[in-house]
Amino acid sequence: MEKIVMLRHGDGGKHTNLLIRDIFYKHFHNDILVNSLDASIFEVNQERLAFTTDSFVVKPLVFPGGDIGKLAVSGTINDLVTAGARPLYLSCSFIIEEGFDMKLLEKIAASMGETCRKAGVKIITGDTKVVEKGAVDGVFINTSGIGVVQAAYQPKAIQEGDQIIITGGIAQHGTTISVERYGIKVEGNIKSDCGPLNHIFEKLQPYMGSIKLMKDPTRGGLATALNEILEVSGSEIQLLEKAIPIAGEVKSINELLGLDPLYHACEGRMIIVVDKQKAGEILEEVRRCEDCEDAAIIGSFAPTGLSPKVVMETVIGGRRIVGSLEGNMLPRIC
Amino acid sequence: MEKIVMLRHGDGGKHTNLLIRDIFYKHFHNDILVNSLDASIFEVNQERLAFTTDSFVVKPLVFPGGDIGKLAVSGTINDLVTAGARPLYLSCSFIIEEGFDMKLLEKIAASMGETCRKAGVKIITGDTKVVEKGAVDGVFINTSGIGVVQAAYQPKAIQEGDQIIITGGIAQHGTTISVERYGIKVEGNIKSDCGPLNHIFEKLQPYMGSIKLMKDPTRGGLATALNEILEVSGSEIQLLEKAIPIAGEVKSINELLGLDPLYHACEGRMIIVVDKQKAGEILEEVRRCEDCEDAAIIGSFAPTGLSPKVVMETVIGGRRIVGSLEGNMLPRIC
């Protein structure tokens, strides 16, 4: 273990997982925590509820396609969906720097309110802290969320042939933030995909028996999320590069910046693992959802017995092993 | 409304309430939110649950009697208790500054784990963000909490003669932080009262029918908390200064600093409003709880018809109206 916390401990990849395991799991140890992914599930009065939390530190606070408020509401809603839960209630806690522009604060709050109404969830409790100038960079927001579990995904039942759907073009959020941070002049209409995804969850209710898993590829991107799925499924994922939806502009910018879009955060996309027999039908259903017209089947699970890794067939016909995020991507992406 | 956010918007007093009303309630508006106090109550499958959130930004991170971790766990547990709920589960989200000492992080996590075990609650979900040096001052922690509502307090049934109990000496947390921040050399054993209070809640279960309200006097102190109770009860509170438990050292330091202990945060005390007939019995029960030997009845509700204000009979026999916190107390007390 390093002696100090480094930026990479927050990148959502290997180092984050080490920090969580070696410090937080060690001292908070309990069954629910260590068995949970992006949200935890507990039971009250025979009802299964999901509980999740996320702090948002994105920079800049406002970006094409959204702002920290929209992101904070969407991110927590989406984590509940990954637990098979219908999101119901959010909490919201602001840490604000002294001197922060009140109009911008109101704009962020309005954006949160609007995103909540669109998603049909309510912020029912909150907290506000103000710290002296320099003690926080602008505003950080924590949202925690509660939902009612509707679907029992069966990640352990993932088997050969199961198909992997992504609900839209990848890397849009991460690329948008990079463009803003590096101050690159870009022609065209690049914007974050950030948004709540519970409408997809509702639309897919009739298919829940055929859905093995949902996971949103946020920090660490598609590559890291697929590697986390491996840890549960234990079998090889075969990815088809040419099937992965990615906007032309997103691709070009990442080539320019020398960044790999597979590792860029999405904030409004879901990975859905489904039975082979129902994959086509589910894909059609997803494509009918708002902002999901580019949804695609991007890969499948190989026969068991192969070691658990993500192998991508590249556009030029090669094979590339795609690992978890290890290097330094951009900090403060979400 | 001011054009920028000021430190006083975070002091837990009038300005915080204005900010919440004019910005957050406006945009997040829903029945549960606007009717809630420190925690919100919602129903799932005929079970009433409480939900609360708090971000902790205290400076220094470690202080006599506790640290930011103990404070974060205790504060959220105590907010659930004020909603009549038995705390069950917490979330925990860290925002950490790059370069933060890993050993100190582990010390804070260990303190959280220990406080959880003592209180019988579990941290079941979490999040970790790391931001670049200078973007946050050390570490900030959000804890959100869920509990099962056990008691339906009846604040609207508060009536003439109802007694007000405080579970121990006031102003210890706020004074301890002031001493640390101003770097005052103090003889004696001044330390924060910070700690979880659900053991008192459990002990008082047989008396729940006689308890009208519980409220923890954190930011803004006893004075502000009592004024918030007025908003619900609508009748005058008569406070007896000589009955308010306060350690001699705490009193002296505040005289030295020119600060009023009535406005200093407690982080391990509860205000309990009880029926007159049961007040003595409940007080005895409270005094038998850990760290509650100084619990006392400090006042009562006057006949209805008087305007809702807090009036204190001072030690020299005068009458003083005690308002909500309006001025600037120390920021980052919790």
TrEMBL record, chains A, B:
Ranges for the PurM-like N-terminal domain? 38-149
- Which ranges carry the PurM-like C-terminal domain? 159-301
Protein origin, superkingdom: Bacteria
Q: Which GO terms describe its biological process?
A: protein maturation
- A Pfam family found in this protein is AIRS
In terms of InterPro entries, this protein maps to:
HypE (IPR011854), PurM-like_C_dom (IPR010918), PurM-like_C_sf (IPR036676), PurM-like_N (IPR016188), PurM-like_N_sf (IPR036921)
Q: Which PANTHER family match?
A: CARBAMOYL DEHYDRATASE HYPE, HYDROGENASE ISOENZYMES FORMATION PROTEIN HYPE
Give the protein family.
Belongs to the HypE family.
Q: What's the protein here called?
A: Hydrogenase expression/formation protein HypE
Q: What organism is the protein native to?
A: Clostridium formicaceticum
